[in-house]
Design brief:
Blueprint lengths: L5 H13 L2 E4 L4 H14 L3 E7 L5 H14 L2 E6 L6 H4 L5 H19 L4 E3 L12 H8 L5 H4 L4 H10 L25 H16 L5 E6 L12 E6 L4 H6 L1 H10 L4 E4 L11 H4 L9
Parallel strand pairs: 1-2, 1-4, 2-3, 6-7
Antiparallel strand pairs: 5-6
Helix pairs in contact: 1-2, 2-3, 2-8, 5-6, 9-11
Length: about 290
């Protein structure tokens, strides 16, 4: 079946011509697919690098390790320090640019350290229509988007991932924990830890598509606990979440939230931007 997929064959050919690659790998379907394809073609000359910081969900880090092991690819966890950047912490609309700039600074350094030729990301054609400041960071760092070069849209990625036997071919979209905090509200280690703790418990309760949106009770400059957790789950999981509301509230309290709420509209990307625009913008946040 692989040989009948023209997108996949173009990707294999391009990767072969590259010689050796570092894949910026988060464990999501896009970057996992790029890593699997690169490993298939280049073997040990393809290395996946995961940048580890407080904004990476703990369950995503463990999933990335497990998926790379299943692929058989070399996988390196590298500490990332975007949280130390004032421009990142202040959480303006260009936050993603500063995050990706740190990621690509690290990957460019590791590319040299590991004697590799190229740095790749998992951007596909559907991403290009979004407002994604990180794309500018990739351009600045000369990172290659091989899925774009080969004409992959998201549906092509999922089909290709299934052909390669990746168990994450239908994995829901994910995003960094900082995307759960409204623009203009400072990103702190404590707030990210609150979100991470509650999302991990929600996953353990069996909920698959989850976002914990962090909202301040008072001033956004107040770094003390006491925030509101606005939980989004897939519309198909709303009933299951409601039936487990006592367990969810208890988990939220353990994570340090003063109030725990369930958003009845369900999960949608960019919902933090509704307060800015009056509508949900998929293009900005995850």
């Amino acid at each position: 079946m692989e040989e009948q997929d023209p997108h996949l064959q173009r990707l294999f050919s391009l990767l072969s011509d590259m010689g050796s690659v570092l894949v910026c790998y988060s464990g999501g379907v896009d970057s996992a697919f790029v890593l699997a394809a690169a490993h298939r073609v280049l073997g040990p000359r393809a290395i996946g690098m995961t940048a580890v910081s407080p904004s990476l969900p703990s369950f995503e880090r463990e999933a990335a390790i497990d998926i790379a092991r299943q692929i058989g690819a070399r996988h390196e966890l590298v500490p990332s320090s975007e949280i130390e950047d004032d421009n990142y912490r202040k959480n303006d609309v260009d936050r993603c640019f500063h995050c990706k700039s740190e990621l690509y600074r690290l990957s460019s350094k590791k590319k040299v350290d590991w004697s590799l030729d190229w740095v790749l990301n998992g951007t596909n054609l559907d991403d290009l229509g979004d407002y994604r400041p990180g794309l500018e960071a990739a351009k600045n760092a000369q990172v290659r988007s091989v899925l774009v070069e080969c004409g992959f849209r998201k549906e092509d990625v999922r089909r290709g991932a299934a052909l390669l036997g990746l168990p994450v071919w239908n994995k829901p979209a994910s995003a960094c924990l900082s995307s759960r905090i409204p623009y203009g509200t400072e990103v702190t280690r404590e707030r990210l830890a609150q979100i991470d703790a509650l999302e991990a418990e929600l996953h353990h309760l069996g909920l698959r598509q989850v976002r914990v949106r962090w909202h301040a009770l008072g001033s956004t400059k107040d770094t003390t606990p006491g925030a509101i957790a606005r939980i989004e789950v897939a519309a198909t999981e709303l009933l299951a979440a409601f039936e487990q509301r006592d367990a969810i509230v208890d988990a939220g309290k353990r994570a340090g939230f003063r109030y725990v709420t369930l958003d009845l509209q369900g999960y949608r990307t960019g919902s933090h931007n509704e307060v800015l625009t009056g509508r949900s913008l998929r293009v900005v946040n995850g």
